[in-house]
Each structure stands twice: as C-alpha cells, then as structure tokens.
Model the fold of this input.
Amino acid sequence: MQRFDRWLDSPWRRSVLAALAGALPMFAFPAPSLWWFAYVALVPWILLARCAPTGRRAACDGWFGGLGFMLAVHHWLLPSLHVFTLVLAALLGALWVPWGWLVRRFLAGLPPPGRCAAALVVLPSGWLAVELVRSWQGLGGPWGMLGASQWQVAPALRLASVGGVWLLSFLVVAVNVAVAVLVAVRAARVPAVAGLVATAAATSAAWVWAPRPGVDGHVRIAVVQPGLVDGTESGQRRFDREERLTRSLVGQHVDLVVWGESSVGFDLTERPDLARRIAALSREVGADVLVNVDARRADRPGIYKSSVLVGPDGPTGDRYDKMRLVPFGEYIPARSVLGWATSVGKAAGEDRRRGSAQVVMDVGHGLRVGPLVCFETAFPDMSRHLARDGAGVLLAQSSTSTFQHSWAPEQHASLGALRAAETGRPMVHATLTGVSAVYGPGGQRVGPWLGTDASTTEVYDVPTAHGVTPYVRYGDWPVHAALLVLAAFCATQGARALRPRRNAPAPSAPPARTVRASPARHGH
Done:
C-alpha cells in the first residue's frame, strides 16, 4: 500500500489515474449498457479524491476525472472534431473541480459517521450542480447524464416520472458514495448502509405510490428509415427511397407517418414538385406525413432544420423550427474565437438558424404530437413542456449517420425511454439511418428497434395515455433541492470561518510593573 501511495506522489500518474477512473461510467451507457455498473463506477474516482494529500490536489483529481468522463462519454466525436474533442473535454472537465474538493472535504482520513451521512446528500447534490451547468445548450447539452444509464430499468423509470433524470443521477451518485464509505471507512458503515436502505426504500415507494399513466387507446405510427445514402445527389436519392418505402404502407391503416431528420434536403416552397409528391403519399396511405426539412428557407435568410407536416392537400402550415442546435455540428459558439475548429474537423461551415417556440401539431385521428429534432431529446425540459401543452405523443426526428459505427446511435435512441417515463407520454424516435425506437408512456420498449443496418419501414401500435406525472407537474425539483443543500453547506462553512474572529477574546493589556523601594532606602 505504501508503494502505491509513493507511486501516486507523481502528479502526472495521479492525473492519468483520475482520468481513467472518471471514464469508467461510460460502460453503463449504450452500447454496452451495463446499467448496474453505474452504481459502483464512481467508487475508484471517489476513493482517489478522498486520499488526496491536499484540497488542491483533490480539485485536480476532480478536473482530470471530469476530463476522462466527458471524453469517454463523447468519444464518438473524435472522428469529427479530432483534437478539439480533447479541448472541449478539458474545459468541461473543470466543472468537477469543486466536486473533487467536496469528496476530500467529507471523506478524507477517518471521517465521523455524521460527516459520512452528510456526504450522502452533499456529494450527489454537487454532482447535480455539475450536470445542471453542463446541461446548458451552449456547453453541449445534457448528453451523458449519469441517470440516463438507467433507461431500461423499470423501477428507475418509475422514479423518473417523479423527479426526472435528475432524481436518478442523485440516487446513483448516493449509492456510489455509500459503497465508497463501506470500502474505506469502517467506522461509518452504519450511515452507509442506512443510505443504501433509504435509496431502496425511495425506489420501492415510487414503484408503489407514484401515479401510473392511464392508457386510454392506441395509435398506429409508421417510421420510415431509408438507411445510409451517400455519394452524388444523395439528397434526391434519399427522397426517392423514402417515397418508395412510404408507398409500401398503403393499406396498413396508419394514423401518422414519420420521416427522420434531414429527410428532405430542399425547401418545399422552392420545390413544389416534392411537396406534391409527399401530398400524394399522404392521400395513398391515408395519413399525414411528418418530414424534416434541412435547407435554406425561401421566406427568410439562413438554413433551418424544420419538422413540417404534410397532408393530402400539401403542407398543412404546422411547422417546428429546431431551437437547440448541436454545438460545432450545427453552429460554432463564439465563431470569431473558435472558428478554427472547422479546419481540424467536420464543424459547421455555416451556422444554422434557431426556431423561437415549441409547437404541438394536430395530425388528425384525434392525435396531437410534439416534435423534437435530434439531440433535443436529451433535454428533459423540452419534452416536459410539450406534455404540458397537450401533446399526446412525443416525436423525435434524428440522424446519427455521421457516427454510424459508434455507440452514439444506441445511446441516442435510449434517451426516448427517459423522456417517455418522465412525461407519461409515448415517444417515437425516428431516424434516417438507425437506431429508430418507440417507447410506451411508462418508458417500456414497444416493438423492435431498427438498427443501423436497416432500410425499411415499421408500423408501431403505440399506447396513448392521460394524466400528469409528478415530474411534469413539479419540474426539476431535485435540482432545486440540491442547490439548497449546497447553499446550506456554503452558509455553514462561512459561519465557521467567521466564528473564531467573532468569539476571539480582546487582547488584554500587559500587567503594569511597579517599582518598590527597598526598606533601607525607605528609611532614608
């Protein structure tokens, strides 16, 4: 053990070890999807920061661990952004600096049981604060939130209906902290076990008492996935393939047909011939077609990505312009400073334009849908707002063809389960090249996934539901609670820092010295 401690005395070795420890949670996400691993994946990182010799070193452990986490969860960006991926991971990894310091503050040495019990609340709250900051769209959005690793766990999905993915992240981190305390602090095993029992009790209570969405019917929604189309005139050839696939749905009595992101590469106002062809498909199939137009608009400057509803008479007028764009993929933040990213990777040569408001569309058959485009499905607030605005089905139009042979398509498709569970509304995730997936109002999978090797259509009998989940009603309350916990901690620390000054006794004056005359002199 002493030899290992001496090995850790090297700052660079310790930094590399912190980065590797921070990268471990990547295996809890798709494609490996080892959901159970999330509950112990942070333990090595916590133990490393706990034994840091100083608070500054623990903060560095937090930084390098965050770098490893961000790089691992976003490793599929490397072919597109190259070295810039490392730069982004290093910048965002700095968000974990305070968390590393907090780990040492609460768990260093032989902490008393009370401090360990507080760590079970403060450290998960600190993690949620990091997820809140990095969830800002300008910093890349909430991709890779730790709670999202639980997308296929039924009890976790029930918890998501209560507090969203935020509550799942909090509980996953709390379990990791409890396991770390069990491993390293024998004297505090009682609060650690109590924390694990409390987590199990919260999960059980949510399973029993959380309101379940009331299924009130089914709708038949067809997903058209054309598959990978490359080469010259790929936009036109993709449209032709989508047209053929959609025509195969004739006679299947579908209520809506959904095409993927960028399924139409031309503005339909500029290409009325394409609009007429889609309208003819709508008449033949007997359902509206929701396409996604990625093109320069004729009625305003700039390029937009837009969900456009086309009925038997042409575009219905319902249109949603994508609001949250992918940094570097669809725009470059602070292009005057970071524009050099276009020279080292596949960053956007021209910024896309943003929409201004979310839209709920009436597609007939008594069905109202709320469209989302691409990585907007990572933002829990967007699907929550659509549910509150009356959407009966959430629709995601996506394309991950750039990352076709990576873990990105599976991870993106898994987010639909969380959004469905949070809102109590089914979610249809339709892509150009896979993975396409559908989830019921409780987050459960409906029908088959369409993999990245599929060029096909699939009709899903999607259960619809009514009712309002606690998450839709109360929003991101776990985040607010976490911020209150951190505010209370900071106030306590501030009070302790001021207490010695306030209670210090006033300096006393030195005793006065008196000169006493000797008896002989007194006699004189």
Q: What stands out?
A: Confidence is low (pLDDT under 50) at residues 514-524.
